[in-house]
């Protein structure tokens, strides 16, 4: 109400000044009117010019002086806004009276002033928002990059309340997408993509003008801003979200190249859903709609997918072929207008269109991973607040590798055991993040995750820790005999080493190494009688052999209401030297070449350790390659014996999953 009153009063003052300048008798009164009118018009224009200049300096990430900083502070305050409204009212009143009836000049001035007014207010808001962002974890370039490039778990509303869903798809590099698709997306979504720095001032002004002048508003979002909307911010339409988009887009363009941003966008954008499964990324869309890879899309198919981006359900080529065709024509026309293709190519693309087969979506069974992730977040209180509809979790899961592993398990014939034989499989990246998790072999049976929940005797896989500790403390020295004993998994040699170390001392070492499970400090420790889940065993392997325990994690960042939180995953202390690590790696390599894990020799540079528990109840293999550490457990869910089950059989299954 205050602003309305101020505007009205200043409108009258401006009109009075114009009336004096236009109608007063010649003399000091008319001169005063002219001076007032000039001041009323020049003052707001000068302020707007200074303010826009400061906004441009901010946009180009350059430092601006105290004058502009103070100006932004004043104009962003309630008093500054009131002053700007007053100046605008006075200028409008003065021009309205001086140039009556309204001329084209007055109308243009009013529209330009209104646009500039909105632009500088937006600049002020972006400046204010940007000044607060560094205090939040969401401003780090690393967390932004990790969030927009990673697969995500989101929380969706169902009959049972909020449930986590893996919003996942294959991750491709930009060169793995068809050049037609890249050109089509840029042409229809952001034709100045390679010219702006995250936010496009022209597009924003065009969108603001369309809100008032056109029946349907145009979007002002760039590809960078859309990527942030899809992965970081909510879909709520309001000024606050738009300001966040602009501020974060400027920062994201500093952290990623244009090619990386475009690839992330094509990997993360949604193309609707089928049979309740989301179609995430252009690779999945190309398979579903055209039965081919994204790199093989022709011009018409690329235009069709690019046209779907505005409204996937509305322009679905299967459900709405006529509407999709019309939209594809629009995309092709835009490409021709921008010189990416010729008009003849656009016409030929439409004539050459033909129906193609459809492929099943590449699907990965992510439930064990998602269940473990959410349980871990709740148990360790890693979320800043309870999950809600705005929560997005950027995850470590490698969708393509998970899908490949699931497909191999479905085709696999196990060497031992019956239909009840179960497995747990886990793969850790170099940083300790879980990239693949198999909780059970048979998904139709509701059972616990044998990768994360079930604790079983670790058998001879424990011998790695005994030998590593003995070498570190120089209780033994590297020798051919030591390597043979280890490769053959000699129980007597391991028990002799444990006796020299002391079971209690070995338990202390394992506790420092990150073990939380209860270990019995008795001679049976050398035989691996103590129980651990696969997640813990694999993490300790990685910690001792690669320099410091890191608890396995599945979350890179978590987004809530547009704020990114980046949990820390600190590594524990290095417990053995690099020289001991190299010796243990050599001994584990020999286990694969000539010991109990010969099937794994088919994997280049593989090294590992087998384990078989008492009465053939559990088969283990923990393996290392040049890329990662992974492990597998085999056994019956009821802990009954499995005739013929050994660690060698586990290494055989591991090899099939690694190939």
Question: Roughly what fraction of the amino acids lie in strands?
Answer: 5-15%
Mean pLDDT: 82
The major sheet is characterized as:
5 strands, antiparallel
Pairing-aware structural class of the strands and helices? alpha+beta
Proportion in helices: 40-55%
**Unreliable parts:** 58-65, 123-138, 212-217
C-alpha termini separation:
71 Å
Shape verdict: elongated
User: Total strand count, please?
Assistant: 14
What is the helix tally? 24
Radius of gyration: 33 Å
Strand order of the largest sheet: 2-1-5-10-11
Structure commentary:
By secondary structure, this protein is α+β, with helices and mostly antiparallel strands. It has helices at residues 2-23, 28-59, 66-76, 78-98, 104-132, 141-149, 179-189, 201-213, 223-231, 239-255, 258-268, 282-290, 299-308, 321-337, 343-351, 367-379, 399-411, 463-472, 480-487, 491-501, 503-512, 534-546, 578-594, 647-658, and strands spanning 152-158, 161-167, 270-274, 277-280, 392-395, 422-428, 434-438, 455-457, 531-533, 555-560, 563-565, 607-612, 618-624, 629-635. Strands 2-1-5-10-11 form a five-stranded antiparallel beta sheet. It has a five-stranded antiparallel beta sheet with strand order 7-6-14-13-12, sandwiched between helices. Strands 3-4 form a two-stranded antiparallel sheet. Strand 10 and strand 11 form a beta hairpin. Helix 7 runs parallel beside helix 13 (299-308), helix 9 packs across helix 11 and helix 19 packs across helix 23. The longest helix has 32 residues, at 28-59. The protein starts with a helix and ends with a helix.
């Amino acid at each position: 109400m205050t602003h309305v009153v101020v505007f009205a009063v200043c409108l009258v003052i401006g009109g009075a000044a114009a009336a004096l300048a236009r109608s007063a008798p010649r003399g000091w009164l008319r001169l005063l009117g002219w001076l007032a009118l000039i001041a009323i018009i020049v003052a707001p224009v000068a302020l707007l010019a200074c303010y826009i200049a400061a906004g441009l300096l901010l946009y180009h990430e350059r430092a601006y002086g105290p004058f502009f900083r103070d100006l932004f502070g004043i104009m962003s305050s309630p008093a500054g806004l009131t002053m700007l409204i007053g100046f605008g009212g006075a200028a409008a009143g003065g021009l309205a009276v001086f140039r009556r009836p309204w001329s084209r000049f007055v109308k243009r001035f009013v529209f330009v002033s209104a646009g500039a007014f909105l632009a500088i207010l937006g600049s002020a808001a972006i400046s204010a928002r940007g000044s607060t962002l560094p205090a939040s974890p969401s401003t780090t370039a690393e967390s932004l990059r990790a969030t927009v490039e990673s697969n995500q778990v989101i929380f969706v509303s169902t009959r049972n309340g909020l449930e986590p869903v893996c919003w996942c798809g294959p991750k491709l590099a930009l060169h793995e997408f068809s050049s037609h698709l890249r050109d089509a997306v840029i042409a229809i979504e952001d034709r100045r993509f390679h010219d702006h720095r995250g936010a496009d001032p022209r597009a924003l002004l065009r969108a603001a003008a369309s809100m008032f002048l056109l029946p349907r508003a145009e979007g002002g979002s760039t590809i960078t801003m859309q990527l942030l909307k899809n992965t970081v911010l909510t879909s709520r339409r309001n000024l606050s979200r738009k300001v966040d988009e602009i501020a974060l887009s400027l920062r994201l363009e500093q952290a990623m190249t244009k090619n990386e941003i475009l690839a992330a966008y094509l990997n993360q954008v949604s193309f609707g859903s089928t049979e309740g499964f989301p179609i995430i990324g252009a690779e999945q869309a190309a398979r579903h709609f055209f039965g081919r890879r994204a790199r093989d899309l022709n011009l018409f198919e690329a235009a069709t997918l690019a046209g779907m981006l505005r409204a996937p359900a509305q322009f679905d080529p299967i459900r709405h072929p006529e509407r999709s065709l019309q939209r594809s024509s629009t995309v092709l026309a835009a490409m021709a207008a921008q010189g990416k293709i010729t008009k003849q190519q656009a016409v030929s693309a439409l004539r050459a269109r033909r129906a193609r087969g459809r492929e099943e979506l590449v699907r990965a069974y992510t439930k064990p991973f998602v269940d473990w992730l959410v349980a871990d977040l709740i148990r360790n209180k890693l979320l800043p607040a309870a999950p809600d509809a705005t929560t997005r979790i950027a995850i470590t899961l490698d969708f393509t590798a998970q899908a490949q592993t699931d497909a191999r398990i479905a085709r696999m014939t196990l060497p031992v055991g019956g239909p009840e034989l179960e497995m747990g499989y886990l793969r850790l990246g170099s940083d300790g993040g879980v990239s693949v998790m198999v909780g059970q072999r048979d998904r139709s049976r509701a059972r616990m995750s044998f990768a994360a929940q079930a604790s079983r005797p670790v058998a001879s896989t424990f011998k790695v820790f005994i030998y590593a500790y003995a070498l570190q403390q120089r209780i033994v020295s590297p020798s051919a005999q030591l390597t043979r004993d280890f490769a053959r998994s000699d129980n007597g040699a391991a028990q002799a080493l444990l006796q020299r170390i002391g079971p209690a001392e070995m338990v202390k070492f394992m506790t420092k190494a990150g073990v939380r499970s209860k270990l019995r400090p008795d001679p049976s420790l050398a035989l691996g009688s103590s129980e651990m889940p696969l997640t813990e065993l694999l993490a300790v392997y990685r910690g001792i052999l690669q320099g410091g325990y890191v608890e396995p994690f599945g979350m890179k960042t978590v987004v809530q209401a547009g704020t990114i939180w980046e949990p820390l995953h600190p590594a524990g202390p290095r417990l053995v030297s690099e020289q001991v690590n190299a010796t243990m790696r050599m001994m584990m390599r020999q286990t694969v070449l000539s010991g109990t894990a010969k099937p794994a020799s088919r994997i280049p540079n593989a090294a590992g350790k087998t384990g078989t528990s008492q009465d053939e109840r559990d088969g283990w293999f923990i393996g290392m390659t040049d890329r990662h550490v992974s492990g597998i457990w085999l056994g019956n869910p009821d802990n009954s014996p499995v005739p013929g089950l050994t660690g060698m059989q586990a290494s055989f299954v591991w090899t099939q999953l690694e190939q």
